[in-house]
Amino acid sequence: MPGTSTSSVAAADVGLERDIFTRQLLRELAGTLQEVVGLDDASGYISVVGTAMGEHIDARYREALAVERLSREQVSEVLVDLKRRIQGDFYVIEETEDRIVLGNRACPFGEMVRDRPSLCMMTSNVFGHIAAQNLGYAAVSLPETIAAGHSHCRVVVHLRPTEDLPDAAREYYQR
Amino acid sequence: MRHESITSADTAADAGAKALLEALPEAALLLSRDAMILTSNRAARAFLGRDVTGEPLSALQAGDDAALAHYIDRCFGTSSPLIGSIVLNDGGKGDSCRLFGCRATLPGGAVVLLRLDPNEDGRFTALNSKIAELHGEIRQRRHAQAILAETVAERELLLRELQHRVKNNMHMLDGILRGAEREARSEEAKDALRDVSLRIAAIGAVQQLLYSSEGIETIDSARLVEAVSKGALALARNEAATRFEVDSFRIPIETAVTVALILNELLTNAVKYGQPASGAQQVAVEMTLADRQVTLTIADNGPGFAPQQSHRRASGVGLVKGLLRQLGGSLHIGSTPEGTTCHVGFPLPEQEVRRDLS
């Protein structure tokens, strides 16, 4: 009976909905980029997108909080909050004048981020842009990431340009 | 620290930075935040064809100035290279190349270091253009091929229909001749009508094969021999013991009709005149293909004959010789009191020789 067939298809447990579709799409896009142009260049492309996303998010928080610039405390809260809103689970591990160290138990890309380290440039650029635009300077390093196979992420946002910055840190400046 | 040889445009770059820039193998520019070119290296001058120091970056491109300015502004905000692209208008090159831009902090101030990657993108642009061109050509060819295939299929259908009608007409003609044979009063007339009927049947057999086979221009040699032999062997007063050894290969239609008539004549002679004085009649047919040469052999165990002594048999042989002239072939007859063997040889044109591997 046609009706039975259609309803069984609609009820089938295929695990597909918009969020999963979008994450899968991003995973495939990032994977294709990494394979075609290599990890470094793929990270460069994701960085461009990350910078744009950072601009959008920074503008929305400033507008919502009705401030010209975010304060030092607001920046820290915004970094955690923006991830929470997209189903990440970031938290502050350490906070000093020189740096903010954040941990993360759940990547917004979910399991789809595995073996896609280029997607981490989204976090680096969004965090780096927001911190630098509001506080003048930022350098972001990601010593541990779920994408690289760790159980959690560790993100360090340096707020002072020092000589002992890790080589892998990416620097961001106020524009 | 400033050096006398550094131009005024190098406001944000000192001599050390300029030296490092010159050492880069790739085309590189130092830009101010508002996208003015502060200095360029040797590779950039070679690539762009001139020294572009002092010009705005937008002067080099054919694209959107606002988008380029936005990209440079973003580059000013990070020390990690951001990837972008530019379509150059320099000298009408029209080349697209990738850009890697990042902030560089020099003693004189912050600038944007912009590296140009013309080779890869230029190559891909040309390659993509060529692929698009080839894709279009393939599409056109496929379209033309589809039309041709349709035309060929239509032509094949019409040809089969024609062959079907010819086959029916041949059967009708054969029926008329058999009726005339039954009504003829003299044995001589009956024989003549039977011979003609067999010849018509041989040609009809070829038409039947053409109509029923997959191809429309060639038929299988083994099936041809089988079909033609049926009619001729039916003439035997007592059933003859037969042996067939036939290679399977494709024979073109024009040649097949002639081969059918030759086989019919020689086989009819073998059946009619190759009956031994005692014992069972034996008839053997062989057809082989080697080095583009077809060899057809028909043998019987009859009493043999001398062509000048048997007017009727010689008449059939004359027809075979005439047909073989059309094929560029030859006929050799060996006749002894123990039997007669006819050897026929003729060539097949190379394009027509296709072994039937099925």
From TrEMBL, chain A:
<dbReference type="Pfam" id="PF18546">
    <property type="entry name" value="MetOD1"/>
</dbReference>
<dbReference type="InterPro" id="IPR041359">
    <property type="entry name" value="MetOD1"/>
</dbReference>
<feature type="domain" description="Metanogen output">
    <location>
        <begin position="26"/>
        <end position="157"/>
    </location>
</feature>
<protein>
    <submittedName>
        <fullName>Transcriptional regulator</fullName>
    </submittedName>
</protein>
UniProtKB/TrEMBL annotation, chain B:
<dbReference type="Pfam" id="PF07568">
    <property type="entry name" value="HisKA_2"/>
</dbReference>
<feature type="domain" description="Histidine kinase">
    <location>
        <begin position="161"/>
        <end position="350"/>
    </location>
</feature>
<keyword id="KW-0067">ATP-binding</keyword>
<dbReference type="GO" id="GO:0005524">
    <property type="term" value="F:ATP binding"/>
</dbReference>
<keyword id="KW-0808">Transferase</keyword>
<dbReference type="Pfam" id="PF13581">
    <property type="entry name" value="HATPase_c_2"/>
</dbReference>
<keyword id="KW-0597">Phosphoprotein</keyword>
<dbReference type="InterPro" id="IPR036890">
    <property type="entry name" value="HATPase_C_sf"/>
</dbReference>
<dbReference type="InterPro" id="IPR011495">
    <property type="entry name" value="Sig_transdc_His_kin_sub2_dim/P"/>
</dbReference>
<dbReference type="GO" id="GO:0004673">
    <property type="term" value="F:protein histidine kinase activity"/>
</dbReference>
<keyword id="KW-0547">Nucleotide-binding</keyword>
<keyword id="KW-0418">Kinase</keyword>
<dbReference type="InterPro" id="IPR003594">
    <property type="entry name" value="HATPase_dom"/>
</dbReference>
<protein>
    <recommendedName>
        <fullName>histidine kinase</fullName>
        <ecNumber>2.7.13.3</ecNumber>
    </recommendedName>
</protein>
<dbReference type="InterPro" id="IPR005467">
    <property type="entry name" value="His_kinase_dom"/>
</dbReference>
